């Protein structure tokens, strides 16, 4: 008889992030996108932290998203922060934003706070890409 040994989670070796991330609703994100005075990548950016679930059939991405998988985000935070530090709203999401999205937002905010007062704040898209797709099905891009 084989016994299965529980494997540690992908984030087990990383520090537990402290602050609670700020929530942003799909409606609030849509308002940002509809505001002609705001530019994605300058005034806000959406960070999709999914990895393997992007390969699932029917998978979609947000039209303003960059993909930075959660599994490698912590290790690359210094570079990620340098790239995003001048963007006021950095909006993280995963599939439903119940695990990876909030964890990554907290890591990002912890790192940003450790660098002193700044101009960037982490947010979490409530409900993740699933909520976005349900509310705005015409505002997604097919992965495959």
UniProtKB/TrEMBL annotation:
Record-linked Pfam families: Rhodanese
Alphabetized GO MF terms: protein tyrosine phosphatase activity
A cellular-component GO term for this protein: cytoplasm
Positions in coiled-coil regions: none
Domain Rhodanese: 40-141
Origin superkingdom: Eukaryota
Name of the protein this chain belongs to: Rhodanese domain-containing protein
UniProt source species: Cryptococcus gattii serotype B (strain WM276 / ATCC MYA-4071) (Filobasidiella gattii)
């Amino acid at each position: 008889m084989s016994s299965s040994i529980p494997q540690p989670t992908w984030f087990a070796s990383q520090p537990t992030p402290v602050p609670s991330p700020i929530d942003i609703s799909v409606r609030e994100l849509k308002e940002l996108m509809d505001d002609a005075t705001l530019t994605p990548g300058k005034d806000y950016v959406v960070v999709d932290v999914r990895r393997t679930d992007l390969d699932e059939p029917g998978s979609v991405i947000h039209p303003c998203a960059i993909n930075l998988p959660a599994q490698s985000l912590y290790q690359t935070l210094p570079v990620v922060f340098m790239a995003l530090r001048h963007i006021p709203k950095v909006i993280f999401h995963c599939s439903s934003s119940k695990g990876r999205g909030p964890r990554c937002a907290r890591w990002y905010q912890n790192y940003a706070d450790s660098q002193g007062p700044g101009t960037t704040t982490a947010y979490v898209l409530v409900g993740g890409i699933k909520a976005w797709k349900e509310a705005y099905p015409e505002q997604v891009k097919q992965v495959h």
